[in-house]
Automatic annotation (TrEMBL):
It comes from Streptomyces johnsoniae. Keywords: ATP-binding, Nucleotide-binding, Transport. InterPro entries: AAA+_ATPase (IPR003593), ABC_transporter-like_ATP-bd (IPR003439), ABC_Transporter_VariousFunc (IPR051782), P-loop_NTPase (IPR027417). Residues 1-222 form the ABC transporter domain. The keyword Transport applies. The keyword Nucleus does not apply. This is ATP-binding cassette domain-containing protein.
Amino acid sequence: MRLQGVGRRYGPRGRWVLRDVGLDVPPGALLRIEGANGCGKSTLLRLVAGADAPSRGRITGRPRRVAYVPDRFPPALPLTALGYLTRLGRIHGLGRRGAAAAADAWLARFAAEEHAGTPLRELSKGSCQKVAVAQAFLAGPELLVLDEAWTGLDGQARRVLDEAVAERVAAGARVVVVDHAPARPAGAGARVYRVEDGRLCDAPAAGRETLVRAVGPPGAVPPDGLPGAPRWRRDGGGYALTVPAEHSDELLRALLGAQPPWHIEALETRP
């Protein structure tokens, strides 16, 4: 699969979100896309998945079986978890029994089988994310595109997702991911690219940090003892906390689990 001179803008006079992007995605490749919030990472993943079309350039060689997990999953669909996965399995080309069997198997693998009959709108955010991720693996995709798919999953589910990604890569599938934590997917070597000023370039291999922009309760400052000992400074109405990227998950959990919790406005992993 190849992207050649790909650009994307919204409207005939809109700014170019992406420009002159060239990228090869061979079988068995694991590619990780990094960059600041709003730089165009999600736009690039939509183009790779075929959910959007380029304004300029062309994309060739996209496999037939494509699975995509967007950064926002629509939980308001009038379906149960099992009903949704079964329908997606049919869309991916599975027969009725095969789709139902695959749906059951992936719900069980993500420890979500107890929610099979639960309407999507009643699921917790974490359980809903398990369903969103499970649908991507139903039919053994040849191209798997994951946009922040690990976010919202518990530790065990993240490990299952790591394993499932590694299995698809070993089977020769192409996998393209965006995630704020540079260690994900764990245990699988990835080629890393960064989107800057609308262009795609190779990213430095090590020494990454995560910048978290967060707003706490009125008058609150970042507490002592936060994971990774983040540096912090005032940033508008909140704070910007910088931590070694390998501690980003623990920092987020600490802020979100505080009483009262902090509000996370933005994340950025950078060299």
